[in-house]
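Dear H.,

Thanks for agreeing to be a second pair of eyes. The structure we're designing against is below in token form, covering all 95 positions.
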């Protein structure tokens, strides 16, 4: 499986949610820090039309909504199935 790339400000709660999800799934990823004040640069606006973080890239696909990634990541890089009770807790944590 190819590596995920996460563009975020280190310490961002939304970026941390994506990173925690990737860690939980044992996925390989690379964090690309975005410096405050560069959100409106053409390079970053090409990644995220609203100039925010995080942005997740994988296999030529970009996703810039952290809740969407965390909610739909169950099939992308799962290392073991979660029991239903744990899956419910995971959904509660990301909301």
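And this is the sequence the design step returned. I haven't edited it by hand at all.
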């Amino acid at each position: 499986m190819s590596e995920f790339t996460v563009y975020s400000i280190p310490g961002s709660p939304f970026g941390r949610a994506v990173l925690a999800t990737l860690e939980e799934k044992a996925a390989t990823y690379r964090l690309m820090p975005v410096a405050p004040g560069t959100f409106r640069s053409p390079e970053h606006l090409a990644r995220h039309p609203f100039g925010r973080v995080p942005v997740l890239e994988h296999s030529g696909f970009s996703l810039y909504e952290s809740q969407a990634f965390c909610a739909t990541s169950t099939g992308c890089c799962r290392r073991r199935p979660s029991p239903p009770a744990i899956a419910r807790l995971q959904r509660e944590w990301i909301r």
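Two observations from my side: The longest strand covers residues 4-8. The CA atoms of residues 85 and 91 lie 10 Å apart.

Warmly,
E.
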